[in-house]
Design goal:
Length: 347
């Protein structure tokens, strides 16, 4: 029996060394100390058979072994408990030295939309209604209603995108398609003055370069009232540009031909970067071409339902994309539609 006890003691110690968690500990406890068939329990049960003297001696020994094993078992239990606690702390602790995770990127409005919003705000403060219109449009509103002769070069498919051959439908080449639409909308009986502004996207079959896109934005407006003159035209445009750029701007008029205005002009703005001295942005001219404008042609007023003997109007249309280029000092128009985030994130 002595030897059996020794053997069990050694076997227990050997197996205890290999235990790594509470589950293993519980299995070991069952194997040696289970009431029913634990290896150590069986020996204790065998004590009953022995004579009193031997029983006393063996009982003493078995108790010593039991104490020894229980002590080792408790040490192992504490060891496992400490390890598991350390694992939990490790898993849940906050590492104050970890670098900040990058912030989730937040989107913002496109620079052209920002410029458009600003222009709309200024125009609406000046009493203009803001309107939107169709991009796919009939030849009539884009050209015919605006006094374009049938053989005007802009009507050629080299310049304008028609949706198919032999059709009157095209992607509008300017937002002036809204002139007659809006005069009719706001002036059903031919007796009302109108101030309307209508930004939007336009399309041209264009040779592309740093200042020319095939798809770009325009901001156009007209005023129909009595006794409108060129002084009104210049004053309205200057006020809008002053609002957009936050300072007084110098402008100059050059004669320009548009079939829907008479007289017609091109308006240049003194370059805001070099103040007229010449730089990369203004191509060393000191001035930047900003818009077309003029007094509304009698035929257009008539098409919109006004009597040109009584009524007069001013109209101007500017490249919103070019306004934004000036505002943000962008040297190539093609950046806007590139979808390149490195460009867009600067605004
Ligand atoms: C027009 O489109 C006329 N509808 C403007 C107008 C309205 C005149 C009312 C008179 C009365 P124009 O083709 O010049 O005109 O274009 C107007 C502006 O759009 C130009 O001054 C320029 O700033 C811009 N623009 C023209 N072509 C392009 C292009 N390919 N890419 C970017 N901007 C352009």
């Amino acid at each position: 029996m002595k030897q059996e006890l020794k053997k069990i003691q050694e076997e227990f110690k050997k197996q205890l060394k290999e235990v790594a968690d509470f589950a293993g500990l519980s299995d070991l406890e069952q194997k040696f100390f289970s009431r029913k068939n634990g290896e150590f329990t069986s020996i204790m049960k065998g004590l009953k058979e022995l004579t009193d003297d031997v029983k006393k001696e063996m009982g003493q020994m078995a108790n010593d072994v039991k104490k020894d094993l229980e002590g080792l078992f408790e040490d192992k239990r504490l060891q496992i408990q400490q390890k598991e606690m350390a694992d939990i702390v490790e898993r849940e602790s906050i590492d104050v030295t970890q670098p900040l995770l990058p912030k989730k990127a937040k989107g913002h409005l496109h620079p052209i939309t920002q410029a458009q919003d600003k222009m709309e705000e200024i125009a609406s403060n000046m009493g203009f209604v803001i309107e939107d219109g169709p991009e796919l449009e009939s030849d009539y509103y884009v050209f015919g209603a605006l006094n374009f002769p049938d053989d005007h070069p802009a009507r050629e498919s080299m310049d304008t995108f028609y949706i198919s051959d032999n059709t009157d439908w095209c992607m509008r080449a300017h937002v002036s398609n809204m002139q007659v639409r809006l005069m009719r909308k706001y002036n059903e009986d031919g007796t009302k003055a109108v101030r309307a502004a209508y930004p939007g996207k336009v399309f041209r079959n264009e040779a592309l370069d740093a200042t020319h896109e095939h798809t770009f934005h325009q901001f156009e407006a007209f005023v129909v009232d009595r006794n409108i003159n060129i002084g009104n035209l210049v004053a309205v445009i200057k006020e809008l540009l002053r609002g957009l750029y936050g300072r007084e701007v110098d402008v100059r008029l050059r004669p320009g031909y548009f079939p829907f205005v008479e007289p017609g002009f091109e308006m240049d703005m003194k370059c805001l970067f070099c103040r007229g001295e010449g730089c990369r942005v203004c191509k060393h001219l000191g001035w930047v071409e900003m818009l077309g404008c003029g007094l509304m042609h009698p035929n257009v007023l008539r098409e919109g339902g006004y009597d040109p003997q009584e009524w007069s109007g001013l109209a101007f249309g500017m490249g919103l994309t070019r306004l934004a280029m000036m505002r943000y000092s962008i040297e190539d128009i093609r950046h806007f539609m590139s979808g390149d985030l490195r460009f867009l994130q600067q605004f």
